Amino acid sequence: MQGKHFLAFDLGASSGRAILGTLQNEKLELTEIHRFENQMQQINGHFFWNIFSLFSELKTGLKKCVQEHGVQPDSIGVDTWGVDFVHLNREGMIISLPFAYRDSRTDTAMDDLFKEIPAEEVYSQTGIQFMQFNSLFQLFSMVKEKSSLLEITDKILFMPDALNYLFSGKAVTERTIASTSQLLVPGEMKWQHPLIEKAGIPASILTDLVEPGTIIGSLKEEIGKETGSKAVPVVAVAGHDTASAIASVPAEGDDFAYISSGTWSLMGIESPQPFVSAQSLEMNYTNEGGVEGTTRFLKNIMGMWLIQECRRAWMDEKAYSWDEMVQLAQTAEPFKYLINPDDSSFLNPGNMPEAIKAFCRNTGQEEPESHAAIIRCVYDSLALKYRFTLEQLREVSKKPIRCIHIIGGGANNRFLNQLTADATGMKVIAGPAEATATGNILVQAKALGALASLREMRKVVRNSFPVDEFQPQAQLNWDEAYQRFTQL
């Protein structure tokens, strides 16, 4: 295989993969090298990530790439979910498993912080959507508990930075992953020190910030011996998986909205500047870092989690494939039942179908009884939520939006793609499905000089991956359904 080779490690909350990208003649080819499971570990009533097991799997991926596939990558890079972090002591040792964002220790942290610092002040200084698991609240909960772990912490590193550190020995913080923490100045490369100090968080635990596409060091000699790899560059890619995904949107201009569709649906726009106002606070939008200094102005929407959890709840009764669930939805009456996908009752209910029935009951609707009706309810409601979010994005940004790009695993759901086009009245362009790994690889390529810009990266995506287009069809009364949806 000629061309340049880049190895992306893409870690999600339930699985991780090593994906080899080969860039040649402005086209990218992807090969899955290694796949492994990831799950939270419950220990003494708390939830953690096993970072040592994850790192072992990444090394296995590198070893397989070199020894089984016979390809020496030109560089490596890691992306993960946001907010979670590891603790290092003065000797540079990891001194605890990192807490997982679904851990209950932050249940009251937001309210506790707002008693000391008003929510409006926190938002004006960070521009980040309030979610109880943001790193700010994780750290503040440790301050309030007088955590002995925090007392002996010399530095914290977010998950992709920690894995880069284990590969290279270099401790730095990449900007896009740092932006999820609610500790950064919006749209800038600096920590929000006044807020950090007011919250009682020791600023000394934070490391220097770097832009995505920075070569932070080389693979350690000991890991080279273990895997058979040369001392290749370790690149700080867009460490937040959503930032990597957005970098691979195959857009030609900037007049688009995107939906990064997976467990969560991240819907937003790409902007040269953040939007931080009373209006964006009221709507609870976030301003996270993107590639080339861009801001990802977006909303976190409960996405395929709703469908995934329904499927899990029904597993003993019927093990549906994803396609079977879509086919069932198509047999059900549209708009008969609607939910707000972002209602807190759906965050981790244990039994999602029962939670959906309860929401319908509590909002004066009949309860959906059949599996088909429940699935249709979720898909209709997601499409209507996308319309609602699109209207908010237009209102706040005043930006012309002419199409919606859907990327990530959800881009394969043709039924929901069509519903989204119909609900919004917008052309939908779906693909690539492997958006995060693609963005990770292309940022590595830019770091090594194989590509010059985000525009060139997106051209490679258009050259390399087919997309599906969905035009809006006026077959159903979406306006009437939308009026009902906005009253929920």
From TrEMBL:
GO terms for biological process, alphabetical: glycerol metabolic process; rhamnose catabolic process
* Carbohydrate kinase FGGY N-terminal domain residues: 7-245
Per the UniProt record, which EC number(s) apply here?
2.7.1.5
Q: Name one GO cellular component term.
A: cytosol
The answer to keyword Nucleotide-binding applying to this record is yes
Q: What family is this? A: Belongs to the FGGY kinase family.
- What's this protein's name? Rhamnulokinase
Q: Which organism is it from?
A: Sunxiuqinia elliptica
The top of its lineage is:
Bacteria, Pseudomonadati, Bacteroidota, Bacteroidia, Marinilabiliales
